[in-house]
Design brief:
The chain is an alpha+beta fold. It is 10% helix and 25% strand.
């Protein structure tokens, strides 16, 4: 599904062209910048969406690309928002991460190149996967705001 780019993208160009780092830094909070641009991690249980139970979708804070649905969110007990699968698999990129003296799978947004979090093989059925994301890399769009925010094509998920 096509999405409307977020405010970080230059709209005057008529195409999706990422703005420079200085513009992104101005638009994001220091924590959002640290997580998305410097591959940081926010504290567990002290972030915006770890216990959000509202219906809606989660999009990339940088590009606005749809990433996850509240239908696939679950309480993993880790203190970060966790999902069993992406809403739009083509909007994420999985990369090998050899940091912290181990090998993990990093999850990044395709269109914003934002660091989102990591993927682990210890999730619930049906996928057995846990997409453990940073709230700071996400923006939540409640189902009642999907149309006005330009994500009306996802309303059918909540009927």
């Amino acid at each position: 599904m096509e999405f409307r780019p977020g405010s970080i993208y230059q709209k005057s160009l008529g195409r999706r062209e990422k703005t420079g780092d200085a513009v992104i830094r101005k638009k994001l909070t220091p924590l959002q910048y640290e997580v998305t641009r410097k591959d940081g991690t926010e504290p567990p249980f002290k972030n915006e969406y770890w216990d959000n139970k509202k219906e809606g979708i989660y999009v990339d804070i940088v590009s606005g690309g749809p990433l996850f649905s509240s239908h696939d969110k679950y309480d993993s007990g880790t203190g970060w928002p966790s999902f069993t699968k992406p809403l739009e698999p083509t909007n994420i990129v999985e990369k090998e991460d050899r940091g912290l003296f181990t090998v993990r799978t990093e999850v990044r947004s395709k269109h914003g190149d934002s660091h989102l979090g990591h993927l682990f093989p210890d999730g619930p059925k049906p996928t057995g996967l846990r997409y453990c994301m940073n709230s700071a890399s996400l923006r939540f769009i409640p189902k009642e705001d999907l149309e006005k925010e330009g994500y009306g094509g996802y309303l059918n998920l909540f009927k």
